[in-house]
Each structure stands twice: as structure tokens, then as C-alpha cells.
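Hi W., the D-glutamic acid complex you wanted:
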Amino acid sequence: MMGGEKSKAIGIFDSGIGGLTVVREVMKELPNENIIYFGDTARVPYGSKSKDTVTKFSEQIVRFLLSKDVKAIIIACNTVSSNSYDDLRSTFDIHFAEVVTPGAEACISGLKGSRVGVIGTEATIRSGAYERKLRQFMPDITVFSKACPLFVPLAEEGWTNNTVARITAEIYLQELIDKEIEALILGCTHYPLIADCIRGAAGFIRIVNPAEAVAANMKKFLTESNLLNDGQGAESRFFVSDNTYKFNRMCGLMLGNIYEAEKVDIERY
Ligand code: DGL
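Structure:
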């Protein structure tokens, strides 16, 4: 393997800032890797859109990331992973890592009973992708799913632990708590941003953040493919489809560093 291949960046994308929760885990797990991130801030939310629209948007983003010569792509967005993963895989010749499979695996591991919950966007829940995957791993599992669309604007607004966020979490989660679930998958990349509220409302229920397992899976793939970057001085670059100000602020808060995102006309791709 040529050194050039190894030093190529990992592409990561999401509908907005949510995927930064995945970037955070990738930076921890793979500190030597270069990262190219795209957040579709002009077209967020994806969760209320049709599968066709989500797939079309994702294809444009993948074409943009390929123009940056990435070596693998993490579909950080659960809505894209659960609706468009198969389409993307059949259209593009690059390794994709999605979030549903590692999220389901992490949920099953250590489970004592068989009752679990999944929260996500309307499109993720409607796709049934988490239920299918969980059942594939554990046929007798009972899955309760709930769309929590208001969590996305709360996270985008930075309202991650105020009264509105707390009450919203309590109202959304009560139905799942009543079902006596043992674990709850955060099936949307925005949700770890309001994890404190979710934890507060969920009590002793185990919270599963797929982002951690996604980063570990990418490490495994790069190691097995001999693609780990052995150079020093990893660089992360961020691209968005709309104003950069709000994104930069959230990026700084979440990653503990100052980054200047660049604006891209994604419709060109
Ligand atoms: N971050 C997206 C996901 O993980 C959801 C946000 C949206 O609706 O665009 O599904």
C-alpha cells in the first residue's frame, strides 16, 4: 500500500451538526487520521423528508467527498444510514461505514432481557432499519420505536440542557419508559448532544450511542485494509452548505478546538 493512500482523509457526513458527535469519537479512536466533514446545514432536517430526497442529497454529498479524494466514508446520519445505505453502496465504489449495524450490536451486547427502545427521526423510525437489524442479531427481541423530531432543532439551536429540552425529553420518553425497556438506542446523531436530558428522563435505562461503535468499526476496517495513516499531524476540515457561523460555534464547543468551516454549493455535485 502506498503512503499516499494511507494519508487520505476519512469522509464523514451528516445533515448538519449532529455528525460532529461521530467526529468526536473518531478523533478519540483514530487521532492520526485526517478528516473531511460535510454538514448539510442548508437542507437539514433530513428526518422529515422522503427516502428519494434523502438519497439524492446523500449522493451529492458523496460526490463532493470523492472530489476530496477520501479513502472511506462514514455515513454519520442515521436517517441516511437507514434509508439510503444500500443505494449508496450500489452507486459508489468506496467503503461506507453506516451507523445502524454498530448501534444495534452495541445495544444487544450486555443485554439481560429482551426489551429495548429506539428513538430517531421520523424517516429513521419509518424505515424500520433498527428493528430489522436488532431482530437479525436477536430474533426474540421486542423493540419499541419512537420518532422524536423536536430533539433535532433543540440540538441545532444549542438548547441541549434547558427547561424546554428537559420537558421535551420527558414527554417523548415516557411512552418507552412505561414499556420497561432496558436499553435505549440514540438513533440520531443529534441526540447525544442532549444526552444529559435524555439520561435524566430515562433514569436507569442504558443509553446506547452508536457513534462509539462506529469509530471502533472504522479503526478495524482501516487496520485490516492496511489503510491506517502512519503520518503525523492529522488535519480536520469542515464543509457546510449554508452559513458557517453557527456551525463553527457548535464545532468549537463539541470538539474543543477552533475550526473555520468552508461553504460549499452542494447542488453543483
Ligand atoms: N442527524 C440526523 C440523523 O442522524 C437527523 C437530523 C435530521 O433530521 O436531519 O438522523
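The longest helix spans residues 51-67.

W.
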